[in-house]
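Lecture notes, unit on protein representations.

Consider one protein chain, 356 amino acids long.
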Amino acid sequence: MNLNSKKTYVIAEIGVNHNGSVNLAKKMIREAKRCGADAVKFQSFKAKNLATDFANQAPYQIKNTKIKEKQIKMLKKYELIDKSYYTLKKECKKNKIEFISSVFDEESYNFLLNKIKPKIIKIPSGEITNYFILKKLNYKNNYIFLSTGMSNNAEIINALNTIAKKKVFSLNKNNQISILDEKIHKKNKKKICLMHCITDYPVKDDYANINCVSNFIKDFKLVIGYSDHTIGNLGPIIAISKGAKIIEKHFTLDKNLSGPDHIASLNSKEFKEMVKKIRISERMFGSGIKKLEKCEIKNSKIARKSLVAKTKINKGELITYKNVTAKRPGNGKNPFVFIKMINKKSKKNYLKDQFI
């Protein structure tokens, strides 16, 4: 994978939208590929390692599932056995789509790293302060996508420094970010992506804060992605206009299925439309170098102007503002040539509107 590719990398986050069914997950992999996704992302966790017996659900989980229960009970419904990940990775390979998974505990990370061996491992927003996982990470083994929901710059820097195993970034009292070790940072740039994210499902427009994408690019000088939880596909389009190179969006086959994330997901039709708009946007962004485009050449001769005689001009008459002007078409001399001709004698006779 090339994090510096010009093409936006689009991830269909299946997450737990498979509702614990491997067959549904396989169907979603095939559908995500059909919709134009470059990768699908799952969530790897052991409920017993992720939450205590007394941890409550997040408010959005109660609202979206319409069931109030302990978090560990809810999580067990969506937990996949280890064997399932072999099946899902095989299905991804068969359909030529990248397999990615987020890790929520050390046991799941070790299993993914040593057994499934994906090219990309995602650190979800809730784990950005999980020292026990972060200290295990090594970008020599995988690409690392670090999600930043619920965090601030100090926490992001702490996580990045922990992954790098060296103090690469610092933050001063004015919240300004500095790069302390350019050598390590150069390596980071090739293997680490920082993902802007707001942790709510769905996120209201007022909280999306997509300007973080361009600020992350400026401050961290890393490849920046956007994990979007807003309704619809406008958020990802805005994010790539700000410089996001990776877009992650929750994907479902049916928004009416039970589960915490279906309502904040795109269905097949919507996801396909999002990918289409992203690809159109990429073409529309262009090179950023201002030049005469091929499609403009035929129009430039018509829409631009040439230097012409404003009135009849006799040979030997002085060229002035009174007898020269600019008119269409544009296949004569550039009107700026007038600067070199002003107050000089005309070398020939000109009729009105004749090219000078």
